[in-house]
Amino acid sequence: MSANASMEEFEALLNESFEMDTPEEGSVVKGKVIAIEAGQAIIDVGYKMEGRVDLKEFANPGEAPEIAPGDEVEVFLRQVENARGEAVISREMARREEAWDRLEKAYAEEERVEGAIFGRVKGGFTVDLGGAVAFLPGSQVDVRPVRDAGPLMGLKQPFQILKMDRRRGNIVVSRRAILEESRAEQRAEVIGNLTEGQAVDGVVKNITEYGAFVDLGGVDGLLHVTDMAWRRVNHPSEILSIGETVKVQVIKINKDTHRISLGMKQLQEDPWDLVAAKYPLESVHTGRVTNITDYGAFVELEPGVEGLVHVSEMSWTKKNVHPGKIVSTSQEVEVMVLEIDSAKRRVSLGLKQTMRNPWEVFSETHPEGTEVEGEVKNITEFGLFVGLDGDIDGMVHLSDLSWDERGEDAIQNYRKGDVVQAVVSEVDVEKERISLSIKALGGDKFAEAVGGVKRGSVITVAVTAIEDGGIEVEYEGMKSFIRRSDLSRDRSEQRPERFSVGDKVDVRVTNVDSKTRRLGLSIKAREIAEEKEAVEQYGSSDSGASLGDILGAALKGNE
């Protein structure tokens, strides 16, 4: 009876063993640790199979393995039996499969996952996500660049999965996304407690070319360089330093972008409120040059109040030069207030107005007719420019170079750098022009020579040359020419050869031309005038006297 029962039990066990499926390779199975030896855990995975797993596969990065006989674990069955008759199993691969299932679910639901940074690779770091290895790009470590990631290594912390591909085994995570989310929550809370116009204390965290970022207790605000002080600030580092605690005013809060604009000068008195009273028009003040541009120079009258000296108001004489050649940065200068626009916070200043107009000074000290001396600064097609006192120039026009030569010829006698003498002929202060004359130095010889000579006058001239067309004569050093037709009333006497050089001849003045500096002379006109005068004096139309009688009487009377 007992023998039959034993056979039945054996048969049932045998049938059960035949019915039991052998686990499939590449699947995760449960096992029990039956022993630990030689740095390995011996695990019974059932089905009369045992396998070995290195203890390090049971440890998290940077931690000691926690495993003991009797513990139940899940392992990955890589191979049912190897050459030694043992199952080839892996705890690490089991953890990976388990982790991938868990991570895919978290990725789908956009949940955070916990992991630890355990290595550095090109472009970032490796992260253990409880069995699966993910890549953490360097740009996703923190909200700001991290120079030393040592304190973050091996530390369990949350991450956000950005991308994953199980087939390729790729997972990309971000620590920055977690920080930004918590930071956004913190910012929203801090911003909710701030109001525009409120004065708060903050700590300078960073300084840039355009301003400084101030930490207001979990949220940063931008303090722009133009809002640091009423005066001009070239760089924020002039008045701020990193780590410094400053009092600022909240100027604007953007609820959508959570951006905060801050100001320091708004907590100080605005110097522009008193500008109009302190700097009346045409008043002169001493200021400091703070900035030089192509169009002028900025002068600080007091901290926070600057005015512009336009290039046109810098010098009476230097018209086309860069402002930097007239003034220099930090130089103290005297300026005059020309205009104030309080609405636009602008003050127009003048530098040249603090000095007398050099053309006015020259006009007072050098009236017309004054002789001056100067250096030829420039030669143009219409005359010479001569340097004068007061750093101004006068111009000698071509027509004022010589009495005897054409201007185009006379100008060839001058070179740049020559020192010349001239006479002031005109000063136009408004147009800033000074006219000079070189030919007037010895006086006007023509005017002196013909001062008492008028048209119709009879003068005595000396013959200086005989030509076919007439004769050349001279009167008080002034040369004139009498044409053949004017040599006599009688055509037979209109012969130039009847005169000799040195002869004295009485002639009648027919024209006085100051421009060409010539006298129009005629012997013929003199004879006709004398005849007319004789007729009027010694005869009449009804006396019956002949012309010969009249002229004879006139000649006798003259004798």
UniProtKB/TrEMBL annotation:
<feature type="domain" description="S1 motif">
    <location>
        <begin position="369"/>
        <end position="439"/>
    </location>
</feature>
<dbReference type="Pfam" id="PF00575">
    <property type="entry name" value="S1"/>
</dbReference>
<feature type="domain" description="S1 motif">
    <location>
        <begin position="282"/>
        <end position="352"/>
    </location>
</feature>
<dbReference type="InterPro" id="IPR035104">
    <property type="entry name" value="Ribosomal_protein_S1-like"/>
</dbReference>
<comment type="function">
    <text>Binds mRNA; thus facilitating recognition of the initiation point. It is needed to translate mRNA with a short Shine-Dalgarno (SD) purine-rich sequence.</text>
</comment>
<comment type="similarity">
    <text>Belongs to the bacterial ribosomal protein bS1 family.</text>
</comment>
<dbReference type="InterPro" id="IPR000110">
    <property type="entry name" value="Ribosomal_bS1"/>
</dbReference>
<feature type="domain" description="S1 motif">
    <location>
        <begin position="110"/>
        <end position="176"/>
    </location>
</feature>
<keyword id="KW-0677">Repeat</keyword>
<dbReference type="InterPro" id="IPR003029">
    <property type="entry name" value="S1_domain"/>
</dbReference>
<feature type="domain" description="S1 motif">
    <location>
        <begin position="197"/>
        <end position="265"/>
    </location>
</feature>
<feature type="domain" description="S1 motif">
    <location>
        <begin position="26"/>
        <end position="92"/>
    </location>
</feature>
<protein>
    <recommendedName>
        <fullName>30S ribosomal protein S1</fullName>
    </recommendedName>
</protein>
<dbReference type="InterPro" id="IPR050437">
    <property type="entry name" value="Ribos_protein_bS1-like"/>
</dbReference>
<dbReference type="InterPro" id="IPR012340">
    <property type="entry name" value="NA-bd_OB-fold"/>
</dbReference>
<keyword id="KW-0689">Ribosomal protein</keyword>
<keyword id="KW-0687">Ribonucleoprotein</keyword>
<dbReference type="GO" id="GO:0005840">
    <property type="term" value="C:ribosome"/>
</dbReference>
<feature type="domain" description="S1 motif">
    <location>
        <begin position="456"/>
        <end position="524"/>
    </location>
</feature>
<keyword id="KW-0694">RNA-binding</keyword>
